[in-house]
Amino acid sequence: MSTTDDMQAAAKKFFSSPHYAVAGASSDAAKFGNKIFAWYLDQGIQPTPLNPRASSISVRNNNFQTAAAPSALKNASSTSLSIVTPPAVTKQLLKDAKDAGIQAVWLQPGTFDDDVLEQAKEQFPGAAVGGFEGLSGCNRHEGWCVLVHGEGTGAGTKDGKL
């Protein structure tokens, strides 16, 4: 079982990376992949969107070239990955991210089930932000969302904004 302290430590590790990517990033402003990508932009961070079906996405009238998979990231070994995909996709994505050298992952609410969460914790020990028991107002499959909890992690980004 993960605790608030475990998630806080994982969030700090996540935000210590010099590069970020968002798996499931989308041009559709109604989708969470778009909202989470935009959140990073609001923090002064330009993440790389991961989307195997589009060569670019548009967020706030700006186009961003996508990478099809974690292995296509230029700096995978120094990248933290936000995941906004269904659990079945997340399961394979975690394996691909680990194989590519990704160091930390943030599983957004709805992206995991118990098996996927356990896989994330095994593959990214101390560096997987996800669900845990006892989160006020949430169940294990909801967990922390970067839109709600990102600024409250105390993690800090490279420019100290968080």
Structure, described:
- Helix content is 31%, strand content 17%.
- The protein is an alpha/beta fold and 162 residues long.
- The strands form 2 sheets. Strands 2-1-5-6-7 form a 5-stranded parallel sheet, with helices on both faces.
- The longest helix has 14 residues, at 87-100.
- A hairpin with a 2-residue loop joins strand 3 (56-59) and strand 4 (62-65).
- Residues 133-141 and 153-162 have low confidence and may be disordered.
- It has 5 helices and 7 strands.
- This is CoA-binding domain-containing protein.
- Residues 20-123 form the CoA-binding domain.
- Pfam families: CoA_binding_2 (PF13380).
- InterPro entries: CoA-bd (IPR003781), NAD(P)-bd_dom_sf (IPR036291).
- It comes from Neodothiora populina.
